Amino acid sequence: MMDPFVSALEELAEALLAGEDPESALQDIAQEHDLPAPALRNRALRALGPLETYNKRQAELKKERDQTARRRDPVFAGASFLAAVASLNPRLSAEDRQAEIERLAAEYDVDPAAHKEAIERLRRR
User: Fold this and answer.
1) Cα torsion at 19, 24, 27, 31 (round to 10°)?
2) What pLDDT, on a 0 to 100 scale, did the predictor assign at position 87?
3) What letters, b where the CB count within 10 A reaches 16 and e where it falls short, cover 90-107?
4) Which residues contact 101 (CB under 8 A, 6 or more apart)?
5) Contact predicate 67/75, CB 8 Å
6) Separation CA 26–CA 100 (nearest Å)
7) What's the pLDDT score for residue 1?
8) Measured at the alpha carbon of residue 89, what is the angle toward residues 88 and 93, in degrees to the nearest 5?
9) Contact yes or no for 119/101 (Cβ under 8 A)
10) Closest to 12 measured CA to CA, from 38, 42, 51, 39
11) What is the Cα–Cα distance from 47 to 106, expressed in whole angstroms?
12) Are 100 and 93 in contact (CB under 8 A)?
């Protein structure tokens, strides 16, 4: 038989990722699963870490995984960089646009000079 805390913890993790209030989600889920809230909180803290920062930590982990994938694949990194450049606000001044391109190049670990022609084509749209 499965530990009753496992499905409750999975549900709590999903609720936290969806941006629900940690305390009310914990109370609701403990009640739904007929578990004592303090026991679920203790298990959750061991399994998920501080509940208030779970969502942020998961987002940071996803960002790190994405960056690692881009570093392994320069074509993916270049395409991701150009997609980010394409989505820049067209109302940015030339200086602000260039600063954003430099920031994105650092984030995606690419050389903006290698994508100069594509960036110029994007600007003409």
Assistant:
1) -80
2) 93
3) eeeeeeebeeebeebbee
4) 85, 88, 112, 119
5) no
6) 40
7) 66
8) 105
9) yes
10) 51
11) 34
12) no
The pLDDT assigned to 79 comes to: 93
Both tokens of 86, joined, read 């394409």
Residues 16-55 as b/e (b if ≥16 CB within 10 A, e otherwise) read beeebebeebbebbbeebebeeeebbebbeeebeebeebb
Q: In a structure prediction context, what are the per-residue pLDDT tens digits for the chain, which is 125 residues long?
A: 678 899 999 999 999 999 999 999 999 999 999 999 999 999 999 999 999 999 999 999 998 898 888 878 989 999 999 999 999 999 999 999 999 999 999 988 899 999 989 888 887 65
What distances in angstroms separate CA 62 from CA 43, 55, 100, one per listed residue? 23, 11, 22
| Sign for the pseudo-dihedral over CA of 122, 69, 54, 19 | positive
